[in-house]
Design a protein that fits this description.
Blueprint lengths: L20 H7 L5 E8 L2 E9 L4 H6 L9 H9 L2
Antiparallel strand pairs: 1-2
């Protein structure tokens, strides 16, 4: 039959909701994890989609790259393949 677990949370005045700890742990949701909300006939599901690529050492390097090429030149190179 059905094996349902129900977990509750309330929203803040801004509409923010804290996902209960056991749900986060079960889904492997950590800070900066990406999640999707999927609707199916009025029922919503939370799905962990992945983690952001900007973590750890990569996060420290964000915005420090330099290039003498214009955005159009870079886009041309990436689309040339």
């Amino acid at each position: 039959m059905w094996n349902l677990n129900v977990y509750s949370a309330s929203s803040t005045i801004k509409g923010q909701v804290t996902i209960p700890r056991n749900v986060r742990e079960s889904l492997g949701i950590k800070p900066e994890s990406e999640i999707d909300f999927i609707e199916d006939n009025g029922k919503f599901y939370i799905i962990k989609t992945g983690e952001t690529a900007i973590t750890g050492e990569l996060k420290k390097s964000r915005g420090v790259a330099t290039s003498r090429m214009s955005t159009d030149e870079i886009m041309h190179l990436t689309r040339e393949l």
